[in-house]
Amino acid sequence: MLRLAPWIIVFILVVPVVGGTLLTVPPAFGYLPVLGGDDWSLRPWLELAATPGILRSIAVSFGSGLLATGLALIIVFLFLSTIANTRFDRWIQRLVSPLLSVPHAAAAFGFAFLVAPSGLMLRWLSPSLTGFERPPDWLLLNDPFGMSLISGLVVKEIPFLLLVSLAGLPQLNAAQRVMLARSLGYLPRVAWFKAVAPALYPLIRLPVYAVLAFATSTVDVAMILGPNLPSTLSVQVVQWFNDPDLTRRFLASAGALLQLLVTASALSAWWGLEKLIGTGFNAWVAGGNRQRSDGTLWLVGRGLMLIATLLPVLGLFALALNSVAGFWRFPDAWPGSVTLSHWLQALPDLARPFWMTMVIATAASALAVAMVLAALEHEQRRNRPATRALWLLYLPLLVPQVGFLSGITVLSQMAGQAPALWVVVWAHLLFVLPYVYLTLVEPYRRFDFRWVILGRSLGLSVNQAFWRIRLPMMLRPVLTAMALGVAISVSQYLPTQMLGGGRIVTVTTEAVALSSGGDRRLIGVWAMVQAITPFIGFVLALLIPRLLWKERRGMQAL
Amino acid sequence: MKSTLLALSVSLALPLGSHAAVSDEWPAIVEQARGQTVYFNAWGGESNTNNTIRWAAGQGEERYGIDLVHVKLGDTAEAVSRVVAEKQGGNTSEGAVDLIWVNGENFATLKEAGLLFGPWVGQLPNFSLTDPENNPAVTTDFTVPVEGMEAPWGKAQVVFYYDTSLTENPPGSMPELLEWAQENPGEFSYPKPPQFLGTTFLKQALIELADDGDALYRPVAEADFEVVTAPLWNFLDQLHPNLWRSARNFPDNGPSLRRLMGAGELSLAFSFWPAEVPAAIANNELPPTVESYVLDGGTIGNVSFLAIPFNAQHKSAAMVVANFLLSPEAQAYAQHPDNWGFLTVLSMDQLDAEQKALFEALPSPKGGVTPAELQQVLEEPHASWVEALETAWLERYSGN
Known about the structure:
A: mainly alpha, 25 helices, B: six-stranded mixed beta sheet, 15 helices
């Protein structure tokens, strides 16, 4: 049974993604009998090429993806090079998980309200410092070059990259490496970049690719922060899929495939950059010159990280403020009155979606944890890495959602499936599994195997050793992985809406439906609920081991 | 059940006027509907709308034993996509969508693609209260004949609104709007087409500016599009430099306009809901200094409808719900400015004194428009103009 675990995982992930993508191909070439497309043709592609502003859409998707990923990675590396277990560092590390759990749409709304010309920052500065009595007519959000989109993405992706880096660092003996380099006369930050960074990057490469794929194909963030004249390619594709004119489905399918190509080219461009930078980097390391004054690096790294952490925190604060605000107009720094009416109005609608969200999230992440543990345990027992096919885990993260989700919906209909809970759980599993694997794999491999040997020598069977020694000792990482799984599941919009047929209502589907109404107060309420839901998971992940191991100090340290 | 419905649809293939003849089938439908769940797919972006539907759900449970579930959509096309995917996947009788709030282009596509159930509307006892013989608004949708495939639900009409604390003389026509924008640059905008309110602005402007207005009410293929729309592009070319963000960016939809008005970024905007402004003032979204009005020559108005997909699982219950939403009581509830302000589609002449009193008792809210102002309704152009205008707009203004 255990032997099958890796293959079950691969099957569960690959069939929907590949099947869904393949179903997009015929309509992209004009074949979809339901809508009267009986002949294969290149028309959808010609139509796509003739779409106004299509080149610009592609360029913004491609460019903002690369830039956002690059910037986020640079900031994370700069910060890591300065890390020294100070209070600030511990504070940042503690904030990582909760920040990661804020769904993209909520984070983007918060960010938008911070930096808009009528947003919180300018309200605080006006009119005293700026002299503005009315919001200035500035194009800060949705700018044509995607600057606001890039900033929003950078801020949102930093916690994720930081988390995977922090998970990878311990196996590198970073402190010793730095010390060695320093003994050769390098300054601390330069030492880190020369001795640790080249070893760390390969460990986080796949997550970086996942970030890049997400950034080039995001729909919700691009809708809120991206340009709209024209929109990014991914947003256009969703709009074509949603167009009242059903013949646009052909165009939409071609667009979905084009999105796949754009993401793939961004990935290969990144791969090329890796090579290029790697060569230059080697020369720099081998050159051996010991630069003076790396104080700027220290300042920049910490400064940017501080900003990148403060922005989402402030954004959430702005959302919370909105959810209780009475009438509040620019340039007032604070709402004129505070009211609970928005919360009271939303409460009757909250309970059902909240429980539904919890059920789906718990099911998906419990399944994911079980499967990942099975695969990892199998790997340990065979004492060699699991099948290489496990890189396929990243498939759902690398293939743009718009490309395969509409195909999956059709697939599930072919199977005669009325919208059911388990189909939605499966769809969530696609996105939860990779993250759960990512968080569990290192702690699992680093686990001191001698504990298991010790248990076996005391007469435990292989299975008993797993249940009674390994699992309890790994409770903390397992719960963290589970909490992350819950967070990922909570934030899924398209899979829930498309496969649930609208009958399965979660906090996120409600939040997105309401955000189409644009009432910031109501958005504030739902975004808060959306952000709080996964947060409960992280709190539990922290509390459960503490309560369970209250009497066992040795276990608390794990 | 399927055979009954089949029989129904055969008997329904009658002219609309003959609704009285078939209504003896109605009690059987109501009986069948008991215990069914209706998945009502309706845009869910506004709490007023959602609250009204929640009220209807309570009534449906109490009166007919129907469980009405509001599937809140961000975009009506999500439900349309769903029906298409179901047909593609061969699901012909267990569709997830029972009832859709729809009109205009979405209706035209659904009807053309054969994705709708019906005709069924003549079956509804309350349909006669809309006076269909004398009221073309409930039997045509963007000039496309309804043919009993969707039931009218409520009326909407474009109203403009402005903040009296920021601007004093709001424009009464499109030429005046251009002058006003030149004097107040950056304080007006419209949602980016193909969002429906943005397209509505294009249609409103075109109706006012076109030399050959009649062409708009025939399929676009029969008209010389270039010639008819030339005045519109000329107008927009002059207007755009004076719009919010100099037209380098457009708001997403009506609610975005309202939010920008609330923040003081805009001082003039428009909406398709005459009750939007009063509701927003009551909800602290807009300051009490905002007033609504209708353009001098009238504004575009249309009717919202309810349709049932061909493969809906609970057709009888969907019909019962549609009939209830057409009842004087539900219509008066929805039109109450405190609830939603959705204008009724019922014809007052068809109501008895008691029913009429329900509507006469409705208050007129602060910041809104009077019923008299709403008398000047411009009809929606033919549905085919929507796509043509949107494509032309995107070609001209979506930067390359």
